[in-house]
C-alpha cells in the first residue's frame, strides 16, 4: 500500500478520483500560509498517492486487455455515469449504449487539480453492443482545453535558490524554501538539489554556514544515502562561510568567526582588520598600520582563521598585495624586505623619542652637550634597530636542523670558520685587536649556541653552578682581549657539531 494512501486515510484500492477528493478535502484545513511544513507534507502525500493510483489503474488495464474481456452495455453505462462529462451527454451515451450504435469511440477529460495532468483516453476501439433500432448518432465530444504546463528549468531555479541563500538571513531563507512550489515536486526537487550542489562545489558563492545547513536539510545532502562525502560537504561549507564573512556587510559575522576567548574581537575591530586586507595597496600606509607589535600577530591569526596562507589564496574582496605584505611580516623564520622596512621604521621612531628626550633635557638644563649626545644616542638606537633583525635571522638560520634543508646549505655550514678566520685577519693584519676580538667572541657565542641547541641540551640555572663557574668568568674577563682563545673555542664547538650532525648523517 502507498504511504500517500495511508496519509490521506484512503483504502488500498482507492482510485485517482478518490485521491483527488481526499486531497481537496484536506486543503480546506491545511493552507500553505498557515502551516507551510504541513502543506508540503500533504502535497507530497498527494503526489505519492496519485502516482500509485495511476500505476495501479495502468496495471489493471493491462490485465483486462490480456484477458480479452469486452465491455457490456451495463459496464459502459456505469463508466459513463462516473466520468465528469456533461450530464446531458452522459445520459445520451447511456441511452444510446442500450439502443443502437454498433461502434462508438468516446473520450473523457479527468478533472485534476494539478494542471500538469494530460488528457486521458479512457477507452478507444471497437465496443460491441446488442443490436437495436437505429437511433440518432451520438454527439462527438472534444477534450476540454487544458492550459499549457510551464516546464521548470532546474538550472535556472537553482541559481535563484543560490542567490536567495547569499542575501537572506537564515530564518527568512528557511521560510522562503518552505513556500516555494517548485520544491514541492518529488520529481523536480532532486534535480534542483543536484544543480545547487554542483554549483556550490565548483564555484565561490559566499553563503553562511546556517544557510548551507538549510540547503543540506532541504535537499537531503546529509542523509546516509545521499552519496555526498561528509568531509567534502563540510569543507565546502567552511569555504563558503569564509567567503561570506569577508563581505563588507557581514562584519558582525566576521567578528563572531574571529572571536576567541583568549583574543576577543568585536565588530569594529573585525571591520578594521578587513579594511587592512581590502584597501588599495599603499606601502607607507601599510607600514604605519603594522608598526605596533600586536597588530602583526592579530593579522596573522586573522589570515590563519580565514584559510589564507599566501597571496594566491586571496579571493575578492581581499587584495593579494595586502595579503603578501602581512604574511611576510608574520613569517619570523625568514628575513624579508617588508620585515626589514618595519624594523627600520620602529628603530627610527625609537631614535626620535630618544632624540626628543635628550634635546628636552639639554634645553631645560642649558647644556648643549647633552643635546649633541642625544644625536649620537639616536644614531646608536637606529643602528642597533637596523642590525637586530638581521642578526636574529642569522641566528635562526644557524640553529635550524639539517632536515628539512634550508637555503644556502654550504654557506650555512662554513660560516663559523669563515668568521673565525676573518677575526684573526682583523687582529693580525688589520692591527685592530679590539674589533677582531669582539668578532671572535661573537663567533664563539654563535658556535656554542649552535652546538648546544642542535644537540638537544637543556640549560637549567642553579646558584651552585654560578659559584662553580665564577673563577672561569673572571679569567674570561681577562681573556677578552685575546681573540685567539675565542677563535679556538669557536672552531672546536663547530667541529663537534659538524661531525655529529653533518658527517655522521
Topology:
Elements: H1 3-7, H2 16-27, H3 36-67, H4 73-82, H5 87-99, H6 154-167, H7 170-178, H8 188-202, H9 209-219, H10 230-245, H11 251-258, H12 267-278, H13 283-290, H14 293-305, H15 320-330, H16 337-365, H17 368-399, H18 409-428, H19 433-455, H20 463-478, H21 483-503
Helix pairs in contact: 2-3, 4-5, 6-8, 7-9, 11-12, 14-15, 16-17, 18-19, 18-21, 19-21
Strand content of the residues, in percent? under 5%
Shape: elongated
**How many domains make up the coordinates?**
5
Detail the poorly predicted runs.
68-149
The largest β sheet comes out as: none
Transmembrane segments: 343-364, 370-389, 410-428, 464-494
Keywords: Membrane, Transmembrane, Transmembrane helix
Protein name: Molecular chaperone DnaJ
Organism: Stenotrophomonas nematodicola
Main features:
5 domains, 65% helix, elongated, membrane
What does this 3D model show about the protein?
This protein has 505 residues and is mostly helical. It has 5 domains: 3-99, no CATH class; 154-245, no CATH class; 251-330, no CATH class; 331-396; 400-505, no CATH class. It contains 21 helices and no strands. It has helices spanning 3-7, 16-27, 36-67, 73-82, 87-99, 154-167, 170-178, 188-202, 209-219, 230-245, 251-258, 267-278, 283-290, 293-305, 320-330, 337-365, 368-399, 409-428, 433-455, 463-478, 483-503. Helix 2 (16-27) runs antiparallel to helix 3 (36-67), helix 11 (251-258) packs across helix 12 and helix 14 (293-305) crosses helix 15. The longest helix is centred in the N-terminal third of the chain and has 32 residues, at 36-67. The protein starts with a helix and ends with a helix. Mean pLDDT is 76; it is low at 68-149. Keywords: Membrane, Transmembrane, Transmembrane helix. This is Molecular chaperone DnaJ. The chain crosses the membrane at residues 343-364, 370-389, 410-428, 464-494. It comes from Stenotrophomonas nematodicola.
